[in-house]
């Protein structure tokens, strides 16, 4: 917060609302209206007050504003423990993008430790609403049967989810990345290079995100008239588990693998090296998430980059709209990832 100084250089207290009123030649209530209800003022008066605010670098005290508006301008976000793996930082990147855009809108993100079981997370919401007067929440890691959207919706608490609810009836506002579009783009890329036996290395069935990415691979393979029989293998998001799961594909003539995450793709790298094969030369590999490790691997990993900056801005926009219009129709935004081609899938078949 900027401070004014005396002629001798001694720092004074921060500018006050009363000082702004004196500078602008208006009442303190007029300054308050300029900050909270500018439409009540004549344009010339509003301009004069805003000029005084800028000249004095006046910053309204947040606690006082909260008392007046009954708004904390805080958005709650539950930080969940994630398993080890190169895809973990994706949620950190999203949170940074969302925090930046929320900050630009005058809000702060309040982090809290979410319980391991998302079904228990509403208890944290109730405590934050009671003790911190949190205005809204942002959710992530949504899944089928997720109780959090329904809990918040029932209580008319604004929220937005990064991730679809994966149910027939969508509840609330959400922004998501189109995983099916991404894996289909990966298949199109590999087919253009001459690959025909393109496998999918994904998570066990039942994961909304994982099933969506598998569906994109399946649809694209069928669109190109290619068989998918015995070409899908699954593993938890763990490098060693992925290595063991994908190893059986290589003796059957598989020439390319699309993985549901960069962690799984790294397991594919290890399985290829265990069998004396080289990623990119003998078998093409495409990951998902474009983690920081993707460009550092040798060979560098082709991967699908999620538009996290755009996701963060969209989440903020939807959340502010919901805060301003609690009864409005929920909005859903689906964004396409971008295929980043690197050494692991740059060569045509046989080169």
Automatic annotation (TrEMBL):
InterPro entries associated with the record: HTH_LacI (IPR000843), LacI/GalR-like_sensor (IPR046335), Lambda_DNA-bd_dom_sf (IPR010982), Peripla_BP_I (IPR028082)
Protein keywords: DNA-binding, Transcription, Transcription regulation
PANTHER family reported for this sequence: HTH-TYPE TRANSCRIPTIONAL REGULATOR GALS, LACI-RELATED TRANSCRIPTIONAL REPRESSOR
Domain HTH lacI-type, chain residue ranges per copy: 15-69
Protein name stated in the entry: Transcriptional regulator
The keyword Zinc-finger is annotated on this UniProt entry: no
GO molecular function, one term: DNA-binding transcription factor activity
């Amino acid at each position: 917060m900027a401070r004014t100084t005396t002629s001798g250089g001694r720092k004074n207290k921060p500018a006050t609302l009363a000082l702004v009123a004196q500078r602008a030649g208006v009442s303190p209530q007029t300054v308050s209206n300029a900050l909270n209800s500018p439409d009540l003022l004549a344009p010339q008066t509003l301009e004069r007050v805003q000029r005084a605010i800028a000249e004095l670098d006046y910053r309204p005290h947040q606690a006082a504003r909260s008392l007046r508006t009954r708004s904390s301008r805080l958005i709650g976000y539950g930080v969940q423990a994630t398993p080890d793996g190169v895809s973990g930082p994706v949620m950190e990147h999203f949170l940074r993008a969302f925090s930046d855009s929320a900050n630009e809108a005058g809000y702060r993100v309040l982090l809290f430790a979410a319980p391991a079981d998302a079904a228990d997370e509403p208890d944290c919401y109730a405590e934050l609403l009671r003790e911190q007067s949190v205005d809204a929440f942002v959710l992530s890691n949504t899944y089928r049967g997720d109780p959090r959207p329904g809990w918040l919706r029932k209580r008319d608490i604004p929220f937005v989810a990064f991730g679809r609810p994966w149910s027939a009836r969508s509840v609330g506002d959400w922004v998501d990345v189109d995983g099916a579009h991404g894996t289909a783009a990966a298949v199109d890329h590999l087919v253009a290079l001459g690959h025909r036996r393109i496998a999918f290395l994904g998570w066990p069935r039942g994961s909304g995100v994982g099933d969506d990415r598998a569906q994109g691979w399946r649809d694209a393979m069928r669109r190109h008239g290619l068989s998918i029989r015995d070409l899908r293998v699954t593993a938890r998001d763990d490098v060693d588990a992925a290595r063991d799961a994908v190893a059986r594909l290589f003796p059957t003539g598989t020439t390319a693998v699309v993985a549901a995450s960069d962690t799984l793709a790294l397991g594919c790298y290890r399985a290829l090296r265990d069998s004396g094969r080289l990623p990119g030369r003998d078998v093409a590999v495409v990951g998902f998430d474009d983690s920081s490790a993707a460009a550092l691997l040798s060979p560098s990993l082709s991967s699908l980059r999620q538009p996290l900056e755009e996701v963060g801005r969209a989440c903020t926009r939807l959340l502010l709209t919901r805060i301003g219009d609690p009864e409005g129709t929920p909005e859903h935004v689906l964004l396409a990832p971008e295929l980043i081609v690197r050494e692991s899938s740059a060569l045509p078949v046989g080169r």
